[in-house]
Design goal:
The chain is of the alpha/beta class. Helices cover 43% and strands 18% of the residues. The chain is built from ten helices and eight strands. The two termini are 28 Å apart.
Length: 264
Amino acid sequence: MALLPFKNGQLHYQWLPGNPAQKPLVLLHGFLEDSRMWDGLSQAWNTHGPVLMIDLPGHRQSDSFAAVHTMELMAEAVDAVVQFCQLPSFHLLGHSMGGYVALAYAELHPEKLEQVGLFFSTPQADSPARQVMRDKAAELVQQNHNSFIRASIPQLFDTTMHEAFQPAIHLQINHSLEMSVDGIVAAIQGMKIRKDRTHILESGAISVGVFAGKLDTIIPFDNTEKWSLATGVNYRYTSPSGHMGHITHQEGCIDEVQRWWLRA
């Protein structure tokens, strides 16, 4: 684990060196998560090549840098880390919000990317109704971020998995409670105003892999089925689970991401 100065604070990341013949896999976590979400997956992938895990601004030991953490600001933070680690090109995989950041990065630095992976994520912007929900969420966080986190994390898991994965749910709640109110609100506001980047998938200029969950209630599968037909999407995997498939269907996710990463 390491810290890198960035703007008026620092970024936290973890670099796992590996087979230099394989282009690195850079991993971006989702909202209320951090690089620990990749525990149990990164070790398996690291047997095939280098892996870099970054804590996005406002998450875990990475500082907050603004009242709103736009996807572009987060992409800038990612670029600071990959530059410091001297990675001229790499594969970029993002879970949920991490996927939004990955596409912002693809827009800013397409020449550095071998592939982009949307891991239970979407290229689409928030709908007006979703934006209203973001504002309500930000208000709830400011009133009582503890209650917000305890209510939000279980909703990321499909209900059929709640009993079997109670320990994982409690662990994620405890990790999320480490976040500051400012960090949570900055991420919410950044997601709310993010751009639609479906055009990146439609252009075919960058190779895109889509990892979706059939029971995902955060990124609805029926919608994913439609936009994932875009020209640039040349790898698709459907998990039988929901938004947190990396936990509830871990082996399948390990295998499929590995295939996607190593095929290029």
